[in-house]
Design goal:
Chain B: It is found in: Chromosome, Centromere; Nucleus. The structure holds 2 protein chains of 2 kinds. By secondary structure, chain A is an alpha+beta fold. Helix content of chain A is 36%, strand content 22%. Chain A has 3 domains: 74 residues, no CATH class; 121 residues, S-adenosylmethionine decarboxylase (4-Layer Sandwich), CATH 3.60.90; 128 residues, Ubiquitin-like (UB roll) (Roll). In chain A, helix 9 runs antiparallel to helix 10. In chain B, helix 1 packs across helix 4. The chains are: A alpha+beta, B alpha/beta.
Chain lengths: 342, 183
């Protein structure tokens, strides 16, 4: 077994929690049932790795099969690394009718045309997601399987999520995606995060949304007081603020985003500081919000009164527009309003 | 601006009303449950609020408030600011024994000590008592509830011992050691 294959196996085994290892290896499907039975998962990982390698060598498995295992691992654990979202724009008429086989053929053809040595593996999941694994090489070197790029595209939607793409290979991948899905161009969606499922849910609006005028059946409503002698003074206004918070950020479990970044390219307008205000140069700053679950924290801030309700459009754009990177620019020279631009 | 006044309404017989003001609403509800469960003789009404001023809509149905308790979570700057802003919505005769400050998390580190000092100064300047409460255990909540009940019964005039709220608050009011004492 060559070095790259060993290294990949070692990496996967290290990252897999012991409880999930048996099921992942079974899902791989490259080892026989007796071989799987034979493996002792209670051994220390380095020992298990050696056993696994010897079993693979017994079955004559090669790098190709190990990369299949890596893909299985990523499909089952999609919420790690840093995913970036992209949107395909201007679909041609045939875009709606592109099916998996067509997409696959065209993608592989386009990519292999421009990159000399590239190793591509594609898999379609039941939920309509197409997972693509690419290992890049160039004219002189073989593909480097230790730094693969993963892309996930949902057919019939314009969304693509990409992991680990270097700047050198960006134009090739973009072109292949655009041509094989029958669109005209691809743009950054300005959404990035650790959790692929969260980003997908946010963009495709697959979370519990709340609309104004909806019947008030929100899940997290404050429970009515337990005793008849206890009464809440602010019950009505609290409900109204909670309703507004849920309209902006969703109800119940919300997609798990970690950060929101606002890049300021505006002029300083505060009146307190003479040196900073009244200058023509832009006051550049970056405001970053981070949290283990950003949308839930923001919703809580609004409903408990820490942030003002109604929710400012700067914050509610995160869910309304499905992005978490904003550039706030000056609207026009000397104008006093600020708009979230680009 | 309508101020909350202590003596504008007629009290009910054998009833006391306590108003708990807390911006985060977490400790409030547990404290309220503990208070109503402990008291068996008199009827105790508990009103929960996030801040003052209270909504005008409720002023008709609201009974006379006998004791206002401001709950400050020392780990949150916001909670202290809300209390500072709310103080101006009480009429000044409330401060003659009918206001009390309660703080939680007073033991957690250096940051809380600064805030505790500011709350102490606030309480001392308004001549009100300051109670430190422990909100994470059942016993702590029960203890805070029983201390508040003692204060409440005096302010509502239900105490068996003949004493007034003003007298009690003079005994229990918070004092801040002056700069000269600190060495």
């Amino acid at each position: 077994m060559d070095e790259q294959a060993r290294a990949i196996l070692q990496r996967i085994l290290r990252k897999l929690p012991s409880k999930k290892t048996p099921s992942t290896l079974r899902a791989w499907g490259c080892l026989s049932a007796e071989q799987l039975e034979d493996l002792d998962y209670t051994q220390p990982k380095w020992l298990l790795l050696e056993n696994l390698i010897s079993k693979c060598e017994e079955s004559g498995l090669r790098l190709k099969d190990v990369t299949k295992l890596e893909m299985v691992y990523h499909i089952e654990n999609p919420n790690q690394g840093k995913w970036h979202a992209f949107k395909l724009t201007e679909p041609e008429d045939e875009a709606v009718s592109v099916d998996f086989t067509q997409f696959k053929e065209m993608f592989v053809a386009h990519l292999e045309e421009v990159v000399q040595h590239v190793s591509i593996r594609m898999k379609k999941q039941e939920d309509g997601a197409v997972w693509i694994r690419m290992a890049w090489g160039d004219n002189l070197t073989r593909p480097n399987h230790l730094k693969p790029t993963y892309a996930v595209h949902y057919l019939q939607t314009p969304y693509v999520f990409i992991l680990n793409l270097s700047a050198k290979h960006k134009p090739f991948l973009y072109q292949a995606l655009v041509l094989s899905s029958r669109h005209t161009s691809i743009n950054e969606a300005h959404l990035s995060g650790r959790s692929l499922t969260a980003m997908r849910d946010l963009l495709m609006k697959q979370y519990q949304q709340v609309f104004p005028n909806q019947e008030r059946t929100l899940k997290e409503r404050n429970a009515p007081p337990s005793h008849p002698n206890i009464e809440k003074e602010h019950a009505e206004s609290a409900e109204r603020t909670h309703q507004m918070a849920c309209e902006a950020f969703g109800d119940g479990t919300v997609p798990k985003l970690e950060t929101a970044v606002y890049k300021l390219e505006t002029r300083y307008r505060g009146s307190s500081n003479d040196t900073l205000s009244d200058r023509d140069e832009l006051f550049r700053g970056v405001v970053k919000f981070s949290s283990p679950n950003l949308l839930e924290s923001l919703r809580h801030c609004v409903s408990t009164g820490m942030a003002e309700a109604p929710v400012t459009p700067l914050l509610s754009s995160i869910t309304q527009k499905g992005r978490n990177y904003f550039v706030i620019a000056e609207k026009a020279p000397g104008a006093t309003s600020q708009t979230p631009a680009r | 601006m309508a101020l909350l006044a202590p003596y504008t309404k007629i009290p009910e017989p054998n009833t006391a009303t306590i108003l708990l003001v807390e911006s985060e609403e977490k400790f409030q509800s547990r404290l309220a449950d503990a208070i109503v469960q402990r008291e068996n003789d008199a009827i105790v009404n508990v009103r929960l609020a996030r801040r003052l001023p209270l909504p005008v809509e409720n002023s008709e149905t609201r009974p006379r408030v006998d004791l206002v308790v401001f709950i400050v979570n020392l780990l949150s700057e916001h909670s202290l600011q809300v209390v500072e802003n709310s103080l101006s919505h009480l009429r000044s005769d409330f401060f003659l024994g009918k206001v009390c400050f309660m703080v939680t998390d007073a033991r957690c580190g250096a940051l809380t000590q600064e805030r505790l000092l500011s709350v102490k100064k606030l309480a001392a300047s308004h001549r009100c008592p300051l109670i430190c409460a422990e909100h994470q255990t059942e016993d702590g909540v029960a203890m805070a509830a029983s201390r508040l009940l003692t204060l409440l019964k005096v302010s509502a005039g239900l105490s068996p011992v003949a004493t007034t709220a003003l007298y009690l608050s003079t005994l229990t009011r918070c004092t801040v050691p002056s700069e000269l004492d600190e060495d």
